Structure formats: structure tokens, C-alpha cells
Amino acid sequence: MSDKPAPLDLPDGWTGRAPDTDAFHAMAEAALATLPAVFAPHIANLVVAIEEIADDEILASLGIGHPYELTGLYEGRPLTERSIDQSGGMPDRVTLYRIPILVEWIEEGERLDRLVRHVLIHEIGHHFGFSDDDMHALEDMA
Questions:
Q1: Which residues cross the membrane (predicted)?
Q2: What 3-state DSSP class applies to 29?
């Protein structure tokens, strides 16, 4: 009999260290797949990016003093503010910041995939022009 514990069946990117960017992308893709189908056409061109931490310029523009305070960011024009006259802009983008999410995960003890999903849905909510209450309802539906 071995004293070693049985190996765990972990997803790619879960190597005994903090999940890497690929694992975060996989969690984000899984979260997107849980959204109601009615939202799919409206987020088809939304870019989801994973970065380690927000840069000083972004933090300053948002009035955020510490980089661990920003777990996600929506950049673009909410659908509620668009008109048919607008075209040719850059695609809307949601950035998930890996290190601040990992810090929150450690501090709060929530499952990491659920935390990634929560941050992603919150940022997608900004894309739709949703209030915080709307975002909580969307998350409950997904």
C-alpha cells in the first residue's frame, strides 16, 4: 500500500500552483456557456482577455489605489448607448485580472470557477448597460 494520495483529476492549468491563463480562459468559456441563449448574439464579438494585473494607467483612470482592487474591466460602449450610425469601432472587451481574482479566491474561499464566472458576468453586465441588481439576476439565471 502506498502512502501517496490518489492523483486528482484536475483540469488543464491546475498543476498544484495557481491556475494559469489557459485555465482562466477555460473557466471563462465555461461561464459564457452557462448564459441564457438570448444573450449569445449580443456577446458574439466580445473579446475576453486574461491579464495578470491592471496597469497603472488603467488604475489611475478609474481612481483605484491598489491593483488587487480591480478583478475585471469592461471596455467599450454599452449596448444601451449605441446607435445604428456607429460602426467601425474596436470590439468590446472584458479583461479578467488573474492575480486579483486569485487573491480574492484565497481570501474568500469561494470556488475559483464561480468567482471567475461572477466577475465575468458582472463585466458583461456593463456591456448590456445593466445595473448591479440586473447583474445579480442574470447571474442567478445562468
A1: none
A2: helix
